[in-house]
Amino acid sequence: MAQLELILAAYGKEVEIFPEDWEKRPEGADYLYRTGVVLVRDADVQRVIELFRGGQPAEGGIGGVTRLLLPGEVPPDAPEDRSYTQRFLRYADLRLGRGVVTPEHLFYVCPSVSPCPATEPEQVPPGSPPDPVLPTPFLSAGAADGRGVKVVVLDVGWSDAPAAYWLGGVTGDPENAFDGSGRIRPYAGHGTFIAGVLRAVARNAEVVVKSYFTTAGAMWEFDLAQALDEVLDLAPDIISLSAGTRTRFNLPPLGLDVFVETRLNRINGLALVAAAGNESTRDYFWPAAFPETVGVGALAVNGRDRASFSNFGGWVDVYAPGEDLVNAFLTGEYQCTEPPHTGELRTFEGMARWSGTSFATPLVAGLIAGRMSVTGESAKQAADALLAFARTQPEPGTGPVLRAGDALA
Q1: pLDDT tens, residue by residue, 180-196
Q2: Are strands 345-354 and 325-335 parallel, antiparallel or unpaired?
């Protein structure tokens, strides 16, 4: 639960955890949400304010959804056996139906039960090559190298890795990677590793890493919807998102639901590729569970079985290598926060071994980019073709799979 402790330390009383007794449960927390705030579709704001006998719409976000600041007093006929915010939610459920009023969930590059990298970064010998990486014949002139394709990664930011030749030309927002003692922060290097995986299978794709998950690797749902909207200004072909959350009642998160309905679905050819999460559950993990996204689970080292940490279920579109991948990382010392290695000091020299659906996701994004550079298809068309191929080679007990080198299969 060290990851939750980092979030609690960063957000304090601004964040709540459901259920309240999560520390006593073997499965831990279901979801995190914002204290004193709910989300409502714009069309429902007035009737919700009347029901709650108050409330103040906040600024920002995207058209179609409103962040509503709750009034100081709970209506007298609201349920009493819950926390302040949960009482409003339960009251709205009873009077308006589930899903009209939702909590503002916290999205993070690490889910609340297991870190999204499923492990913390591990040391590799100096000079280790990336793994997986496509051999030279796959990257020769005219090959599926992602040329002419733009991929935007929403993550913790970008740290240049000069020794990683395959990252040449990658750009992005600089991340605040080191703490006051000069050590690598938790989750730092996550965006750089993701860019490395993507470039290892699509060497000439244009990759831009944006810095949004800057507070304990997390951000609020309302802000994430706005960030995704802003990213559309960059005219990407593919958006790669290695973050998400489970939600109240497993319902689609309202802020992202509106983004998908009013933004994503109105841009021809755009593909959103998202991590399925690392909680080893079949519960929906959003936004990967949206039908409009490509939800990516992780394969184990043997390339056949589902990785033990990967979420699963019919909502996961495809599984790709995501365990013990090797790629670009930071240079410096890192102190582990997760048991059983808590306190262990690790030294890195620009490369690391890491596991998680976080890293299976850019591999699939890279395959889509690689296919596009040869076929001329849009990202959506290329993704559909690759998923159709993946369904022809399912692994028993796992599902459809894609591997490095499958761009033109």
Answers
A1: 999 999 999 999 999 99
A2: antiparallel
DSSP characters for 272-321? Answer: EEEE--SSS--S--BTTTSTTSEEEEEE-TTSSSBPTT---STT--EEEE
Given pLDDT bands bounded at 50, 70 and 90, which one contains residue 115?
very low
**What is the spatial distance between Cα 257 and Cα 237, in angstroms, rounded to a whole number?**
20
175: left (phi over 0), alpha (psi -120 to 50) or beta: beta
Mutual angle of helices 379-390 and 357-375, in 10-degree steps: 110
Identify the helix (H) or strand (E) that includes residue 233: none
Considering Cα of 12, then 251, then 67, then 266, what sign does the dihedral take?
Answer: positive
Phi, psi of 345 (to 5 degrees): -100, 125
CB–CB of 23/5 below 8 Å? no
Count CB atoms within 10 A of the CB of residue 28: 18
Q: How many CB atoms lie within 10 A of CB 344?
A: 12
Tell which residue, 277, 194, 192, 284, has the closest CA to residue 239: 194
Of the candidate ranges 120-134, 211-225, 350-364, the one whose mean pLDDT is the lowest:
120-134
Q: What is the pLDDT of residues 26-38, one digit of tens each?
A: 778 899 999 999 9
**310 φ, ψ to 5°?**
-70, 135
d(CA 279, CA 294): 18
Torsion of CA 11, 13, 14, 16, to 10 degrees: 100
> Which residues in 97-112 are b (16+ Cβ under 10 Å) and which e?
eeebbbbbbbbbbbbb
Rounded Cα–Cα distance for residues 26 and 113 (Å): 10
Distance of CA 332 to the CA centre of its chain: 25
Q: How far is CA 306 from CA 15, 275, 277, in A?
A: 33, 14, 13
Q: Residue 360's closest CA among 292, 309, 290, 291?
A: 309
